[in-house]
Each structure stands twice: as C-alpha cells, then as structure tokens.
Amino acid sequence: MAVSTSSNNVSLKSYRLKSSDSIDLMIEVGDDVLVRPSSGTKSWIAKVKKILSDKMKTNVTFIGQWYYWPEDTKDGRMDFHGSSELLISNHCDNLWIESIDGKCKVHNIEDYQRLESVRSDDYYYRLKYDVVTRSYQPEKLQVYCSCEKPYNPDLRMIQCERCYEWYHIKCIGMTDEKVESIEDYICGLCRNT
C-alpha cells in the first residue's frame, strides 16, 4: 500500500479523484479519508497531510497520517471506547491516491459531542497513539459514574442536580423511559446525606 516518493514530485493543494461511478471526489490537504484496506476489513482512516504528483499528474500519491481503531493498539478496544472512536497516531505513509474510497470527518471529542446529528461518516478521537513507544497521550482520562470509567458517547448519562456528577443510566439501574419521566435526578450519595 505504501509507495516511495520521487524528488521530482510537486505538491498539490487538491486533486480531483475520478471514480468508476462518474462521481468525482475532490481530495484536499487536511481531509479525512477512508482508505481501502488490503483485506475485507473495515476501511482504514487517514488525514491527508500532503498530496504529491509527478509533473504529468499520472502518479499521484498522498501522505496519510493514520487514525487507529482502538482494537489495533496494544491494549485493544476497551469498554469506554465508543463505536466511532479512533486514535490519532504519529504513523504516516505515502499512499496511492486511488486507494481512497471516500471522505469522512474525524472530530475531536468535544466537537463530536456538540454535533446536533451524528452521521455514519462522523468519527472522533480523544487520544494520541505513539506507534513506536505504544503509549497514549494523555495517559489518563477523566472518569465518571460509580463505575469510574471514562466517558463513552454511546452510553447515555444523567447528571445529579446536587453534586453535578455524571452517571451512566445503566449503572444506576435506570431506563431511557425513566430518565425521560423524571424532572431532577438526585444520586444515591446525595439522597443519603
């Protein structure tokens, strides 16, 4: 998948990728792209850092900074990882532009939380993964709830109106229907004090 670069290459700001279904895709530096995997697994995802071409634009490549799926890291997928969670890495490769299957959007977790509607091509990251040291930045994440796990956008939470702590509704034995029917939630710790 990775290709070597030539000193005769020129940098491009964008490139119109022609597809077989007659829909061209404009690829620009800074885009997040779906990269066709070598096997039948889910798409790989990379950020386009640079687009390179020979003078005739017959051999076009891009430098892609890889996002890793949590299961592809040393610790694997943890229960706090959301289904759309990625880790941005320091791993870059030079790839053929034709290996791009489409575009997506990778947000930092704060921007992802503010989305009014999440699409199937929206992803997020909160951790950086160093592929050499196999370490994460930050090393620790803030934890919530009585289970003391980091935030997972896939799991609904409710905030106590007294202490302002957040709790997974599953951990406190509540259902979505119950959450909708109560006006103010007071956690067990606050009710007992």
From TrEMBL:
InterPro entries: BAH_dom, BAH_sf, Zinc_finger_PHD-type_CS, Znf_FYVE_PHD, Znf_PHD, Znf_PHD-finger, Znf_RING/FYVE/PHD
Domain PHD-type: 142-193
Gene3D superfamilies for the chain: 2.30.30.490, Zinc/RING finger domain, C3HC4 (zinc finger)
Protein's recorded name: Uncharacterized protein
Organism from which the protein derives: Kalanchoe fedtschenkoi (Lavender scallops)
CDD domains (alphabetical): BAH
Lineage, opening ranks: Eukaryota, Viridiplantae, Streptophyta, Embryophyta, Tracheophyta
Cited PROSITE patterns: BAH, ZF_PHD_1, ZF_PHD_2
Entry keywords, A to Z: Metal-binding, Zinc, Zinc-finger
GO MF term list: chromatin binding; zinc ion binding
Domain BAH per the UniProt entry, residue ranges: 25-140
